[in-house]
Amino acid sequence: RAERRAGGMGSYQRDDFLAFIQRVLGKDYTRLAPVLKTLDVTNARQLRHAIAAPYDPRVEGANLGTRPEFHHHLGGPCVLNALLAKSGRHPPLPTAALRDLAAATGGDDVDADVEDMHPAASIAVYASTLAERRATSAELRGVHARDIAERLHKSKLSSPHRIRRLALSGSDGALSAESRLPETECVDLGELASIELRGDPDAVLRGEGTAFTAPHGVFLRREKLAADDAFEDKFETHHPEGWTTFLACAFAKATGGVAMTWCESERTRSRLFRAANPALTDPNCVSARTSWRRKSPWTRLLARRPVGSAHVDVHGRRDPDGGDVSAEIGDGDCDVGVGALEAVNVELADSLRTALRDGLDRCLARWRMRREARGELDAPAFAVNARPVLTGRRPDGRLTLSQQGCSLGLVSVQLELSMRLRRALVGDAEATADFADAIVDAFASLAPRPGRGETYAGIAALDEHVAKNARHDAKVARVLNAQLERIDLEREVERVRREVGYAPPAAPTYEHFPKSLAQAQPHDVYFRRGLYDGEDSDSA
Question: Which of 510, 514, 522, 521 is nearest to 480 (CA)?
Answer without folding.
Answer: 514
